[in-house]
């Protein structure tokens, strides 16, 4: 049955004045887009053709909108659109729109949505996008004799209630998007031994109008052709009709076809996944479904990582209904996630610099310029630093002698400087992307600025955290203000960034800077005292428990942030904390690999296969290698990994193991102080976790056997 949408008074998307048959606007797609913008404006649906054409061409420049079958769907959301509209042209001479099948397009729909389009308009446009994936719909458009007939065909697809008598019989029988809560199908998958296969997923595109829903329709049709259940969540603009959590639980595999981050990705945790761009699903959905079916039985297939171990059963909440604390947590995790690449790249480059040039290369920082040297003028062992006073007068000299010289020193110095530059973005990236998580793109610039301010006043990552949150909330408040239409275009690019930076930046400099700097200093001093005193072991236990609790989730990331944020201080305490974090995070995948080797009969065939590769992930400090095991049996695996992590964390602190690298595991052993202690601590944690996993699973196995008897 076709989904019925209450239009609530929404006018027709297409009228005869928006249709051009056998048109010849030119030989280039820009000619066609400009022509259709004129058609839309000529019908009174836009305030002028130039602005609409510019917005549509800007969208076209990001990715071609041609799709297989001789169709193109240039589209945009524009301030110049007065009412949601579909401009249609059937071309006398097809024009190339960059479709994957190489076929030039003769059916062109310009989907023009107002910048503030509501959910109703977007749903109607989504229904058109799904219709374009059906051959009967496009064949009817090619054979239509008049503009009025085109209007009828399109209206039957997107707004049947506007036709006399409601939906026609043809429209009512046409395949449409199935409701998310209809999770079953009668036909089993071929080759599945008679059992039904269920594939779920999500699609998204930058505008959230066309490709999002065309990809969803194509995937569902491909599943229907193969006799399996495929349900796809179109994450378009406006409200998202989330998949039924029970259906996700039953799913055998996942397909993500997206150009934007998947919302609620953690719902699919632990399942085999095919992850591609949205155009791949539009162009060849069948091959994606085939790949997903193959991944079901492939133990080495890529899987969806978890935000929390075992995933999250509930669908992503509608943004308007999310509790403020949950929204804030997600924003902070967004900031941490975007910050980590800066930390990893910067920290590893610094460690590589130390490997080549020695640790004393840090003494050159801020005193000498590497540009004074070259491959033909390599540095020597000694550097003479001239010391000047505030007036610029020379008051003395300082001679710095290094153990290394020549090419190793030159290259190591360069790597060290690159690493320091990347680490310099740590706090700005944290603040910028926290603000992004709260306010979207308008929050990025003021958020980054607050990160720089936090560094300038000495508030460190605490200041970046607070500054990013304040910038995000203030930018979101500004974005929600009602402003005149002429000002809307300036809000996200000028008014919001400028206003937020002025207000929150002033607050950071004039009010919050000194208190936050004091908190940061107190925290650093406290960590140093804990590391040097008896409390260091307790700190190691806590960090180990956090790293192994949710294996890449919020708690794990909080511990990792705690460790990496201190690296900039370059103190013994900060290096020991980083070592505890990294060593503990290596334990879970190594331990489950050992457990599957020792007692394979306690695990499924897929888990045994995963165990053969998870040891490499463990050696690389990729905790997520244990997620499939934790997701399948959280009550036994997670406590075991936490116990092993606590042992490892405590031992690294007790043995004064230090790490100057934030990532890399065993492969950055050159940056580890007391490598033997590092290995012993990891080995102890792995043995504890593996033993507990075997014991706990063995108890469960015996209970199951007794129940079966």
Short account of what is shown:
This protein has 709 residues and is an alpha/beta fold. Helix content is 54%, strand content 11%.
Descriptive account of the structure:
Helix content is 54%, strand content 11%. With 709 residues, it is of the alpha/beta class. Strand 11 (382-388) and strand 12 form a beta hairpin. The longest helix has 42 residues, at 491-532. The two termini are 48 Å apart.
Q: Approximately how much beta-strand content do the residues carry?
A: 5-15%
User: Structural class of the helices, strands and pairings?
Assistant: alpha/beta
Total beta-strand segments = 14
Shape: globular
Enumerate the spans where pLDDT stays under 50 for 5 or more consecutive residues: 1-9, 166-194, 308-321
The biggest sheet, with number of strands, parallel, antiparallel or mixed sense and barrel status, is: 6 strands, mixed
Residues in helices, as a percent range: 40-55%
Integer average pLDDT = 81
Distance between the termini: 48 Å
Number of discrete helical segments? 23
- CA gyration radius, whole angstroms: 30 Å
InterPro entries: Bacterial_PTS_Sugar_Transport, PTrfase/Anion_transptr, PTS_EIIA_type-2_dom, PTS_EIIB-like_sf, PTS_EIIB_2, PTS_EIIB_2/3, PTS_EIIC, PTS_EIIC_2
Main location: membrane
Membrane topology: Multi-pass membrane protein
Protein name: Fructose-specific PTS transporter subunit EIIC
What structural keywords apply?
single chain, 11% strand, 4-stranded parallel sheet, 709 residues, 6-stranded mixed sheet, 23 helices, alpha/beta, disordered N terminus
